[in-house]
Design a protein that fits this description.
Blueprint (H helix, E strand, L loop, with lengths): L10 H7 L1 H16 L6 E6 L13 H10 L4 E4 L4 E4 L2 E6 L5 E6 L13 H14 L3 H4 L8 H5 L9 E5 L2 E5 L7 H4 L24 E5 L5 E6 L12 E7 L2 H9 L5 E2 L7 H6 L7 E5 L3 E6 L10 H9 L3 H8 L4 E3 L22 H10 L11 E6 L2 H15 L5 E6 L1 H9 L5 E6 L7 H8 L15 H11 L6 H17 L2 E13 L3 E2 L15 E2 L5
Parallel strand pairs: 1-10, 1-11, 15-16, 15-17
Antiparallel strand pairs: 2-3, 4-5, 5-7, 6-7, 8-9, 9-10, 11-18, 12-18, 13-17, 13-18, 14-18, 19-20
Helix pairs in contact: 10-12, 15-16, 16-17
Amino acid sequence: MRRIYRWRLLIAALALLGAAAWGVYMYRVQEVNASLEVRPLEMGLVGSIDTVEPALLSNRNERLLASMLYEGLLYYNEEKKELEPRLADKWSMSSDCTTLVFSLNKDAKFCNGQPLTAGAVKAAWEHSFATCKEWPQLSHFLSIQGAQERLEGKAEEISGIQVVNDHALKITLNQPNAVFPMVVTNPIFWVFDCAEGNAAPYPGTGPFKVIQNPDNRSILLARNEDYYRDKARLTAVQITVFPEAKAALQAYVDGKLDYLDAVPLSDLSRLKQNETLNKFLVERPLWESYALGFNLNREPFKDNYLLRRALNYAIDRQALIDEVLGGSAIPLKGVLPQGMPGFHETLRGYSYDPDKAQSLLQEAGYPNGEGLPSIVLTYNKDEGHRQVAENVARQLGKIGVSVKTEAVDWTYFRKQINSFSLAFFRVQWRPDYPDPDSFLYSMYHSSRVGVCNYANYCNPQADIVLEQSRAQKLDSKERIKTLNRAEEIIVDDAPYLWLFQRKAVKMVSPQVQGFKLDGLENIDWQKIELHKTEV
């Protein structure tokens, strides 16, 4: 299909090329406008796609594609700040926060025509539990009665997932957990038809279905015409997976893409300064933290919260963001990112204060860094991570703290973090569900050591407060106050050097309307459509 070469034929270029070029441009606009009802949205991804099975998703591309095919029982509406129905049209939780009952949408069915039933939901969840390879994801099931026994091979199913009838599912939890309805929005709980005879990719209930996928590089999706909600406005989506970001950006500039999901960091400043292209940049803060972890069981950070706090005050986060990230981030002052439900507006947290850093460093026993051995900051190999690590090392050097940076491959990096072998290391965290519990409990409760409490942080007081929050009503003001208190305790202990909250940066064409990202970088695929370009 012929394409409009949007960027090369925009106003500046047209002025140089003259009236003949303008006529060609007008013709192409009219030609593409006429085909909008049938042509697919052209989407560019960067990296790889190996699977769309919800339990095995390992990167942004896989999750993005899977979100077009599969759904969970509930969905978090960021604008309304509340959970909404998806495959479950109603749900209720017992007053003691230990039992949850879902009533399923009777109109929902899989794209192969099979009806959605409670038995199918249980089968999908059991399948995901059995096939998941990532412990942090698998651990979400362990709140459910019988999950531990199933994990140990003592039972053939998870007893706490009970089919009441074809359209009702009952979940029984081990202990009070008001946040569990939020947890089931995670992809590990997305639903698919894994009945005998079906093979991966399993049929889903989502707004699209896969039509062609010869090599995981060129994937054609078609609208699910039997979708139980309002059908998607796009008829199809053509996904092209590029091996590197520069080639993807060039394809967008050449007019071959309607949507580019990954913009090269090195090109971001140039794009923002381009008076034509910057109009089509979509940028929004994500509920994501980028921090450096202190191993609290290793020197020099063990039993020395004054040192950890000193390093937090020594970093000019805004300077790092401007110099390394093209301004596309927000400084973090504590655990929770801005915009996250429960964000602590009045938390003092950490800001750049070199005098206070020096004072705390002296109290910690290292005046001007004297006597403090050189610290190794380890990160997984990546150009962006390298630049961040080197910037932090330079800044800490200003207060006399010597930091050496070490890049290792991803597999080794993960093993080292999980075995608590690193003293100072990079951690990037995106919540598994849209609630502050996914930051505070997941990363800082002592029961999560060995799962995703990478700092070995154990504070009985924080544990008690976090457990209290799970026994409080999900949307209560009292629960938010409890979580705020937990964050205050954690921030005071400084188990991390919190740096910044990343912004997502995407590019859309003038013809794309209805595109919007939420804090978890999800896209509402029902609302996107291709509109005619004005001539």
